[in-house]
Structures are given as structure tokens and as C-alpha cells.
Design brief:
9 strands; alpha/beta; 252 residues; Rossmann fold
Length: 252
């Protein structure tokens, strides 16, 4: 039985026999939602609490939480003066990590984890918007394994230094630090495996001004032209990431 199968069996046992998996989701913008993560959570009968930071929702403590997910957003994690709730989000990430909880960060969420750990977040050499390949980085110690290469959706202008003790999981031509793992329970993804066609359309509608021609910036037409198979591959790997994280802790 593979690691993903073991994790799925644990999750099924939990949702069928013990209690619901409790999930907190930090949402930084109304147009950047869970995407394909939502049906995965629903399929496993998760009790999901969506914390809309942009709308002023209070950030609850991590007590009795099984999984923390921090999603993307158009702001920088360094913009605490304009978005003071970023401080509270970072504090929640630190609390979750200290408690040994599984934590997943997507794009801004990955930068939030890095910043919460004291790593530098700064402007990348090039803005990266579109469907571009990432390459897996082999690790000597056990870590989540990405396919050797896969095309994923990017929409970011910043990057981060790897947090102290983090394992480098993936890179791309345009951005060295695309994914990292801390211990067995924390994964940060600079890219969007969860992306759906609706999600791409929402980002275009709300962030179209960022589509300035550049080496790693595709046109609106190119963003929309991705085949369904590309979405499905990313969503498949996202399910594997989620299962890997949940399998790291015993839900009892």
C-alpha cells in the first residue's frame, strides 16, 4: 500500500468512525478560494471553518484543529501596515506549527509560512504568471515527492528564502524556491495545484493589470487555453499533498 493509500485509509477511518476532521482556512481575497481542495474536504466530511481575513473575520485559536490551510492573495506578506491581520495570520501559523498540526500554504500562504518562520520574503527577479513547468528537487531525507516535472499554474511576483531547516521540494526556471517542507507536517507551495478554470477566470478578472508582457507572463488567451488534463494533473497532486499532510498526524 502506498503512502497516499495509507493516508486515505486513515482519513476514511477517522471520518467514518471517530469524528470529523476540523479544518481552518485562511482566505486573503474573495476571489482566491479553495478550488479543487473544497471537494476533497467535502469528500472526507471535513468540518471547515473559513476565516475571511479580508472581511475582518476574527482568527480563532488552533485548539481542536486538525488541518490549517492558508490560501493566496494579491497583497505581500510584508504589507502589515496596510493589512494588520497578516500579523495574526502569521501568529496562527506559528501556533499551528508549534502544536504539530498539518499546515498547507498556497502562494501567499506559502510566503506567510516562510515569513512566520523568520525567512525573508521579497520581490522575485521576474513576475511569474501562467502555466510553466516546475522540477522536483530530490531529498536525502523522506519528504513529499513531486513528479520529476509538471506544468502548474503560477501567479506571483514575490518569492522567499527557505525557512531554517526546510527541505527544498521544487524549483522552476523563473523562481528557485517553488515548494518546501518543514518536518513532516508543513508544506508551502508557491504555485496553484488547486486551480480550476473558474479560479483562473477570477484571477484574470481581478488582477488583469498585472498581465504586463514579460518572459514569464503569459497572455490572457494563453492562461485560458490550458487543456483540462493540465488542471486534472495539478488537482491530482494536490490531493496527494493533502493526504500526505493528514497522514502525518493521528486523528483520534
Amino acid at each position: 500500500m502506498s503512502g497516499s493509500d495509507i493516508g486515505l485509509a486513515m482519513l476514511q477511518s477517522t471520518t467514518e468512525g471517530c469524528r470529523y476532521m476540523k479544518v481552518q482556512v485562511l482566505q486573503h481575497a474573495p476571489f482566491e478560494g479553495l478550488g479543487s481542495i473544497a471537494p476533497w474536504l467535502e469528500r472526507h466530511s471535513a468540518d471547515v471553518r473559513l476565516v475571511r481575513l479580508f472581511a475582518g473575520d476574527p482568527i480563532p485559536p488552533v485548539d481542536h484543529v486538525d488541518l490549517l490551510i492558508a490560501m493566496g492573495g494579491p497583497m505581500s506578506v510584508n504589507d502589515e501596515a496596510d493589512f494588520p491581520w497578516l500579523r495574526a495570520g502569521k501568529a496562527l501559523v506559528r501556533d499551528a506549527m508549534a502544536a504539530g498540526l498539518p499546515v498547507l500554504g498556497v502562494c501567499l500562504g506559502a510566503q506567510l509560512i516562510a515569513s512566520a518562520c523568520g525567512a525573508r520574503v521579497y520581490r522575485n527577479a521576474s513576475r511569474e504568471i501562467g502555466w510553466f513547468p516546475i522540477q522536483a528537487v530530490p531529498n536525502a531525507t523522506p519528504a513529499f515527492g513531486f513528479p520529476p516535472e509538471m506544468s502548474v499554474f503560477h501567479w506571483h511576483g514575490e518569492t522567499f528564502d527557505l525557512p531554517a531547516g526546510a527541505m527544498h521540494l521544487a524549483r522552476s526556471e523563473g523562481c528557485e524556491h517553488q515548494a518546501f517542507q518543514i518536518g513532516r507536517t508543513v508544506i508551502g507551495l508557491q504555485f496553484h495545484l488547486e486551480m480550476t478554470e473558474e479560479g483562473v477566470a477570477a484571477l484574470i478578472d481581478n488582477c488583469r493589470a498585472e498581465l504586463v508582457p514579460d518572459r514569464y507572463v503569459q497572455t490572457e488567451e494563453e492562461l485560458r487555453a490550458a487543456p483540462t488534463s493540465r488542471y486534472l494533473e495539478g488537482q491530482r497532486v494536490m490531493r496527494e499533498v493533502l493526504t500526505y499532510l493528514v497522514a502525518a498526524t493521528e486523528l483520534t
